[in-house]
Sequence to fold (905 residues):
Amino acid sequence: MPDPNQPPGFSRRSFMKTVGVSATVTTLSGLAEAHALAREQAEGEALQGPGPVKMKFTVNGKASEVSVEPSTTLAEVLRYSLGLTGTKIICDRGACGGCSVIIDGKLLNACMTLAFDVAGAKITTVEGLAQGGKLDPVQESFLRHDALQCGYCTPGFIVATRSFLNDVPKPTLDQIKKALGGNICRCGTYTNIFNATLEASGQAPIMDQKGVS
Amino acid sequence: MASDTAVSIPTNMPTTNRPMNLGQSMDDNTSRLDGVAKITGAAKYSSDMILPNSLFARFVRCPFGAASLESVDDADAKKIDGVIEIDIQPKECQYDGQPVGHVAANSPMLVDRAIKALNLKWKKLPVKTQITDTVKEEIAKGDVKDADVTFAAVYSTPVQTHSSLETHGGVVDHHGDKATVYASTQGTSSVRDGIGEPLGLKASDFEVICEYVGGGFGSKLGGPGKELTLAAKLSQKFKRPAYVMCNRADEHLDTGNRPSSMTSVQIGLKKDGSVVGGEILTYGGTGVGKGGGGVSIPSGRYNFQNVNKKHTDVSFNGGGPRPFRAPGHPQAAFAEELMLDEAAALIGMDPFTFKRKLVKDDVYREMMDMGAKLIGWSDRKETGTQKSAMRTGYGIGTGGWGSANPGGNAEVVIHQDGSVESRTGTQDIGTGQRTTMGICTADSIGIPLSFVTVQIGRSTLPPGPGSGGSVTSPTTAPTMMAAAAQAKGKLLDVLAKGSGGDANEFSVKDGVVLRKGEKFLAWKDACAKLTPDGVTGSASTGDGGKGNSQGVQFIKVVVDCETGIVHPKHVIAIQSCGRVICRKTAESQIIGGVIQGISYAMFENKILDRNNGAMVNPNLEWYKILGPNDMPHIEPVLWWHGQTGVKSLGEPPNIPTAAALACAVYNAIGAPIRHLPMTPDKVLKALEGAAS
Fold:
C-alpha cells in the first residue's frame, strides 16, 4: 500500500522542500541555478501549475483523470469535477468532518487535502460504500437507528465510522465518542449514531429504561 | 427518495432500545423514506446542484462592525482568468458581513481568489457590540411588599447562530422563458412568492425545487433571501446556471441568529414556596434587526401572581436575528428556571418540590414525577454541600408550545397500477416530513407504506406551509389523512358500483380490500378496476384532534471543579406532541432539541470584537458546537396519553434543556452561573465566588 504522505507525482512536501532550497540558493547564485536545483530536488519531475494540470487517482474503484490547478482541494475535485457530491464542504477547514474520505485506508478530511497530494491514491467516498445493490452494514445501522436528520453531515459520519470500524472492529462507547469527535452534526443525532455504530460492530445498542410505575 | 438509488432496503426496521416508546405511535418501525438517499450520498441538496456551465458567485462583505467603503480597486481581481463579473458599490455598513457587492466567476475557487485580490479601502466607524453597550444592568423592582424573602438577579445569554451545515443559497437555472430554482429553504412556497421578480418571470413559468435541505432551524424561512435573489439575476443576465451559496463565515455573519438577551428579575416569595409578585425586565440584542428580540419570561407555566414585565429591543453592530428553534424561549427558560432554583435555595426548599408546587398544569406535575424517578432525583445532594473535586448536580427544566390548526393542501392519487402518490408542497428539513406524509397516507387508506410514493419539495405541488413554528405536522398531517381517506372513498365507490354493492360494505386493511369483512380483492387487483386516470383525493383541512406539546427535562451533570469543565451525564426528556406519527423521527426531534440546548448552554457564542465589531469566531472550530465527545446519554420519552391530534414537536424540546443544565450545574457547585455559555472560566469564577 503506498504511503499517502509520499504519493507518486507532485507533492506539497517536495514543493515546500524545493522552495526552501531555492530561496537560499537564489541569494547566492541566481534564479536559473536555483530552478535547476529545484528540478533536481524534485527528483526529475517538472514543477507543475499554477494552471490546470492532469492527475490520476482511483475513486471508488474507478480510475479517474482530472485536470486541476495545484491549489485545488480533493473535496473540490470530488464535488465540482467528478460530481461526487456526497462529500460535503461544510466548514472548509477541517473542523467538522463533513468531507471525510478514506485515502489508501486512512481517514482524511478532503477539504484539507490538496488533490495533488493524493495523485495515484485509492480513494473511497460515501458513494463507494454500498456494493452490488447492498448497503454497507454501517449504512444499514444508520438507517435503522435514524442516525440522520437533515442528512448533510451523514456521509461524513458514515465514512468516518466505516474507517474507524475497519481499525477497531468492536469499540467501546467511549472509543466511539472519541473516534467520531472530528465530526459535527447540527440536527443532533449523536445518540443514534452511537447506537448505529454499536450495532454495526455487532454489539447491543444503549438501552433506555423500561419506564417507571 | 429511495427510488433515486440502485440500493433498495426495507423501511420496516424495528429497534428495541427505547422500550418506553414502543407501541405509542402510528408507526414504530419505519426508517425515514429518504434515508437511503442520504446515507449513500445520492441525495442531491440544492448545494449539490453543480450544473454544466454554471457560474458561481458570493457576496463581498464588510469586514468590520461599522465601516464606510471609501474606494474599490478591483483591477487585480478582474485580471484573473475566469472571473465573470465584479460589482461592488461604496457604502456605509453597519455590521460585519453586510454585503457591498458580489463576485461571479467560473468556479467557486476562482470566486474566492478574486475576492482575496480585491483592494477595498475601509474607514472604520465606532461600534457597539452588545446589549450592555447601550443598557446598564439594572435590578428590577416590582411589588414585593407581602414577601417573606426577595430575590433579585441578572441573567444573560449570548448570540447563537443557526449554523446550518448546508449554508444559505441555491442554484437558479434560467432558460430564457422558463427557470428552475433549486432552493435550500424552509419555505418552498415562500421562495416561489419572492423569486418571480428577480427572475423576470411569471409564477407559471418557473418551478422551485427543494428535495433535501441541510438544516435550517428557522433561518431559512421567509422567501428566497439575498443569495437566491442574486442567483436569479445572474442566471437571467448571463444565460447560465448560477450557483450562490454562503461560505461558513457568511453563514455565521449574515443569515440570522438567536439574539442575545439580558433578563433582570426581582421576585418576592413566601416561606411556603409561593411567589407573590415582582418585576422582570428583559432586553433582546437584535443587532441591526428591527425587533425579534423578545424573551418569553414569565413563560406562563408557573404561577407568579403579580409580576410586571417590560421588554426592550437593543440594537448594536451585528447581523439581525431570525427565528431560531423556539424564538425567545430557551433564553427565557434559562433565566426563569435558574431564578426558581436560586429562590428555592433562599427559602430552603428542594427545587423539585418548589417547581412542582408552582407549576400551573397537572401534566407538568405528572411529567416531573416520572422524570424524577428516571433520573434518580433522590440521589441529589443539597446545593452547596459537596466538597469533592467532581461534583454531581441535578436540574429540571420545563417547556410548552402552542398548537396549529390543520391546513395546507394535500393530494393523494391512487393509480390504476396500485401505486399511490402522496403530494404536498412542503419540504423535509430533517424533521421526517416526507416520511410522516407517507405514513399518514398509508395508515388512512390501510395499505403498507411501501405502496406509497411521497412527493414534496416542489412549488408545482399543492402548496404547503413553511417549516416554521413547529406547525408543519399539525398543519399537513390531518390534511394528508383527509386527502387519503377521500381517495380511498372514491376507489371503494368504483368497486361498489362495479359489483353492485354499497360502498359502506367495503374497507381496506393491510393492503387487502375487504367486503363485509371478508377478502374481496388484493390491492392491485382492486386498483385495476379504476380508469387509467386513477382517483385523486384532495383536502385543505382535516381533523385537529386532541393533544398538546409540553415537556419536562431532567439533567444529571458532573462538574470538574479543578478544570471547570461541565460534563452532562444523563438527560431525561419527556415530551408530549399529541399523536405520534413516526416514532423514530419523533425521538430524533427530541434528541436533537436536547443536543442543541446543551450546545447552547455550554459552548455557543458569537463573539464580536469590542473595538471593531468583527466576529472573532466565524468558523466551526472557535464557534464550537457540541460534538460526539461531549455527549450525555439522552432518553427521549414520548408522552402519549391517548391523544388524537398531531401536535408540534420541532421546537418544544429545545426549550427546557439549557435551563435544566444551568440548574444542575448550580446544584453541583453551589454557585449559579447566570451568563451563558457555561464555559470553564465562568465555572471556576463562580466557584471562587462561592468559596469567598
Chain A touches chain B through 70 residues (CB under 8 Å). The two ends of chain A are 58 Å apart (CA to CA). The first strand of chain A starts at residue 53 and ends at 59. Helices of chain A lie at 12-29, 31-41, 74-81, 137-144, 154-167, 173-179, 190-200.
